[in-house]
Amino acid sequence: MVATNSTDQFSEVMANRFVKFQERMLQGTKVLTEPLDTTSDTTPKDEVLSVDRWKLYHYRPVVRDPAAVPVLIFYALINRYYMIDLQPDRSMVKKFLEAGLDVYVLDWGHPARLDRYLTMEDYIDGYMDQAVDFVRKRSGQDEITIYGICQGGTFSSIYTAVHPEKVKNLAIMVAPIDFHTDTGLLNVWSHCLDADKMVDTFGNVPGSFMNMGFLLLNPLRLMFQKYVDFIDHMDDKNFVTNFSRMEKWIFDSPDQTGEAFKQFVKCMYQENQLVKGEFVLGNRLVNLKNITQPVLNVFAEKDHLVPPDCSRPFTDLVGSKDKKVLSFPTGHIGLFTSSKSQTKYAPAIAQWLADHSREDKVEVIKPIEQKAKPIKKTTTRKKRRHTQEVVNEL
Amino acid sequence: MSQSSNTFVDVAIGLQKQWSEALSNISNVVSGEKLDLNGLDTAPISKAWSEGIRQIVDNGLPKSVAATMKLPDFLEHVNQTTSNYTSLFDQWSQIPHMGDNKGDKSDRSTPNPVDWFKGFTNSMQSWLPAYEGLPGATGANAWQQAMTAMAGNWTRLVNDLGDRVNTNGANEKPETDQARHFYESWLKAYESTMGPFVNMTTIGPARYEVEKLNKGADTYMKYQAASADFYGKMYQTGMEALQEVMSESNNIFSDDVTDEGFNKFYHLLMTVGERRYHELFSSPLFCQSLESFINTGLDWYQARNDMTEEMLKSTPIVTQSQADEIYREMHSLKKRLMELERTQRNQGAHDQGDTDGSH
User: Fold this and answer.
1) If A117 and its partner were Cys, which of A230, A253, A335, B331 is the partner (CB 3.0–4.6 Å)?
2) How far is Cα B171 from Cα B180, in angstroms, rounded to an integer?
3) What is the pLDDT of residue B111?
4) Closest Cα of chain B to A394: distance in Å?
C-alpha cells in the first residue's frame, strides 16, 4: 500500500494496478481459450407434448412417490424458462423435485413472424389450456397446481380466474399484477410507448429491442460495472463459466409476438385493466375474485423489473382464504440464482407447494446435490459476492 | 464536350442557387426572423430543372457522344482536375486546426465541436476558390460563385448557432443544452425549408419510389434530431455525475493515493451515476424524449421498409406485407379450427353424459 502525497506515488499505484491487470489478462486469456461448459437446463426431463412453437416437458421425479398433484410451471414470454434450472447448483426446479413434487414446464420457444397475430387469448385460453388439460389427463388429476413466473404469473392468474375448475393451487412469482406504480421504470416508461405503432412497424417486437430497454434500466451496472467485474475475475474459470452462462440466458431473448405484446402493454401496463376488473379475455370479463384456490405470492424486495408494489396487491385482489406471501431480500434474477435461492428461497416455495400437493413425507432416491467448485485464491469472497449481487439485483 | 458539360453545369448552378436560397432561409429561421414560406419561390428550381432536362435531351446527349472522341482534351482536363483536387485537399488538411482560433493549444486534444464546425465553414471561404478551374472552361466562375454563396449562407447559419451556444455558455448552461439547441434549430430550419420539398407531389413513372425515398429522408432527419436530444440527456447526466464525483473525490485522495482510494472512487462513481441516471429516467422530460426517440426511429424504420417493399414489387419475391396477409389468414383459420375442435369435444362429452344418463 502506498501512503504519501506525490505524483511518484500515484504513478506507483497505477503501475502496480497495471501489472496486476496484465497478469489477470494473461491468465484470463488461457481461461477464455479453453472450452467452457455453459450448458443450462440439465435436470433430466422428457418432452411430452409439442404444439406449434411450444413444448411441454416433464421433469423426471427424484422420489419414489411424488406428490399426486402435479405442478405446471408457466414462464414469461420474455426470456427463456431455463432460468429455473440454470446450473446444477443453482436450480429451483431441482429443489422442487427433491421436495417430492411432480413438475412440468412449458417452453414457449422462439416465435416466428408467422405468430405475430397470436393474442393473449390464444396464449391463455388456447395454449395454456391445452397444456393444463394434457397434464390433468396424464396425471389423472382433475385439478393441478399452476406456478406462474413473471409475466407467466400474470397469465396464470388470468387463466385461473377463467378456468378455476382446473386449478387446485395457484402460485405466482415476481408477477406483475398492479401495473400502476411509479416505483418501476418499466411501469413509468410504458406510458410513453406507442404499442400499436411498434407492432405495426416490427410485426413481432424484437428480443434485442426489449433487451436494450432492460439494459437501460440500470445502464452503469448492466453495461459497465458488470463487465469491469468480469475483467477483474477473468482468471477464475468457475466465475467466467457462470458469467458466460448467465450472459447466454440474458441475451437468449425471443421476439414478442405482436398482438399479444400490444395487448399486454395497453391493457396491463397502460390501463391496468386486470386490477380494475376491466380486462376481457375473448368474450369473458376476468375477475380475480374468482380465484378462490390456495394462493402463494412470491416477490423480490429489490426487484427493478417487477417492483414489489406490482406484485404485493395480488393477495388482496383474489377471493382465496388460504393465502401466503413470501418476500425475499433479493432481485428479480437473484430469486433464482443467488446462493440463498438454493438454501432459503426455493426450499420455502417448495415447502408450500408440497404442503398443498401432499401431506406424507417423501423419500429421496437420487440426490442431485452438487457442490459449487472451489473458489480460486486469486478471487476474494467479498469481491465475488459483490459481483453476484450485481447480477442478482437485475 | 464543353457544350454538354455546360448543360450539366447550368442545371447544377440553377440547383445550387436554390439551395443557397434555402440555406439563407434556414439562417433567417435560426436568427429568429420570421420565415415567409409563401415567399419561397420554387418556380426557379422547376424552371432550372426543366430547362436543364430540355438542354440535355436536345443538345447535351448527342454532343457528349461527339465530345468523348476528343480524348486528348479530356485527358488534359483530368490532369488539371487532379491538380486542383490536390490543392483542395491541402486546404482541407488545415481544417482540424481552424476551430482553434484562441491560440490555446491545450484545447486541440478536445476541440469544441461548435468551434470546429465554425472553423470548417469559415474555411470554406478559403478553399472554395480551389474549385476554380475544376470544370475547366465550363462555367467555373458561375459554379464557384454559387458555391461561395452557399458557403456564405452556411457560415451565417453556423455563426448564428455558434454565437447562441457561446452566449448560453456564458450563462453557464450545460454543454448538452447547447447541442440540443443546435439540433432543435436545425430541425426547425429543416422542417421550414426542406419539408415542403420532400413533401412535394411527385410525378412520373418513379413517383412512388421517389415519394417513399423522400419520406425516408424526412423521417431520418427527425430521428436524428430526436436521437440527439435523447443521447444529449444521457451524456449530460453522465457529465453531471462525473462532476459530482470529482468534487467529492478530493476527500478520497486528500491524504494518500492508495488502492483503497481507487476502490472508493470507483464505488462513488457507480453510486452517484446510478442515482443520477435513476433521477433522469424517472423524469417526465426523459419520458418525452424517449417517446420521441422511439417513435421517430420507428417512423424511419417503417419508411425504410416501405421503400424496400416498393422495390420488391417489381421482383418475383413475396413482400413482408403480403406474407403478413397470409399469416393473418392462417391465424384466423387455426383459431377457427381450435374452436371447432373444442365444440366437438364438448359435444362429445355432452352426448356421453346423455348416454350415461339414459342407463
Assistant:
1) B331
2) 16
3) 43
4) 13
Q: In angstroms, what CA-CA distances link B151 with B121, B131, B147, B267, B308?
A: 7, 13, 6, 50, 35
**Contact (Cβ atoms closer than 8 angstroms) between residue B12 and residue B139:** no
pLDDT, tens digit, 9 for 90 and up, residues A5-40 = 556 666 777 777 788 888 888 888 888 888 899 999
Comparing A222-231, B66-75, B96-105, which segment has the lowest mean pLDDT? Answer: B96-105
Q: Cell 375474485 identifies what position? A: A289
Residue scoring higher pLDDT (B3 or B142)? B142
- Do β-strands A295-300 and A167-173 pair in parallel, antiparallel, or remain unpaired? parallel
Contact, A336 vs A393, CB < 8 A? no
A94, A99, A101, A104 alpha-carbon torsion, rounded to 10° = -20
Q: How far apart are CA A207 and CA A77, in angstroms?
A: 10
Active site residues of A: 150
Neighbours of B172 (CB within 10 A): 6
Interface test with B, best of A192, A208, A216 (most B CBs within 10 A): A192
Do A315 and A287 touch, CB atoms closer than 8 A?
A: no
A 165-224 near B (Cβ less than 8 A): 182, 185, 188-189, 191-194, 197-198, 200-203, 216-221
Are the beta carbons of B212 and B306 closer than 8 angstroms? yes
Torsion (CA) A302, A305, A308, A309 in degrees, nearest 10: 140
Average pLDDT rounded to a whole number, residues A214-224: 90
pLDDT one-digit tens code per residue, B16-62: 666 666 666 656 655 555 544 445 455 555 555 555 555 555 554 55
State the pLDDT at residue A392: 46
A371 backbone dihedrals φ, ψ, rounded to 5°: -75, 150
Please report, rounded to a whole number, the percentage of residues in chain A having pLDDT higher than 90.
Answer: 75
3-state secondary structure of B331: helix
Min CA distance, A377 vs chain B (Å)? 19
How many angstroms separate the CA atoms of B281 and B300, rounded?
A: 24
- From the CB of residue B161, how many other CB atoms can be counted at a distance below 10 Å? 22
User: Are β-strands A71-74 and A103-107 bridged in parallel, bridged antiparallel, or unpaired?
Assistant: parallel
Q: How many of the other CB atoms lie within 10 Å of CB of A254? A: 20
* Distance separating alpha carbons of residues B246 and B268, to the nearest angstrom: 10
Phi, psi of B88 (to 5 degrees): -65, -45
pLDDT score of A46 more than 50: yes
Of B258, B301, B323, the CB nearest to A3: B258
- Interface probe with B: pick from A188, A220, A227, most Cβ of B within 10 Å: A220
Contact assessment for residue A150 and residue A176, using Cβ atoms and an 8 Å cutoff: yes
Percent of the residues in chain B that have a pLDDT greater than 90, as a whole number:
16
pLDDT score, position B3: 43
**Nearest one of B206, B159, B165, B205 to B182, comparing CA atoms:** B165
pLDDT value at residue B227: 87
